[in-house]
């Protein structure tokens, strides 16, 4: 009888251990799928903006070069933070799409003033965005980094 109880107890412990390992594995897979979904959603949004911009250019052709799209590269503590930082920066700069490049060439500090030092909260952690690089071409390129904590 004692042997049967120890076999059942061992089986239950093994089942619980297996279930917890499976849960951890599935949680990681779920997180990866969520990050992939966010990246694809952001890419889809970018492509829709490009289509709108190209339609505007097609309907009213001008020879003035304009900002066609915005590309953001972010250095953040983790994947979710990186996606959120990219999304926030693109939202803050979205009004520049369709604007003449000469506007940014005359005021190159404009992007830094809009973004640098901005604090966002991701997963209950505050991140401060710092602008590293801005390249003003038809596809505006902005490189930022996000560091934990408030700006000082």
From TrEMBL:
Residues 1-24 form the signal peptide. It comes from the Bacteria. PROSITE patterns: PROKAR_LIPOPROTEIN (PS51257). InterPro entries: YtrI_C. Residues 76-146 form the Sporulation membrane protein YtrI C-terminal domain. It holds the Pfam family YtrI_sporulation. The keyword Coiled coil applies. Keywords: Coiled coil, Signal. Residues 30-57 form a coiled coil. Transmembrane segments: none annotated. This is Sporulation membrane protein YtrI C-terminal domain-containing protein.
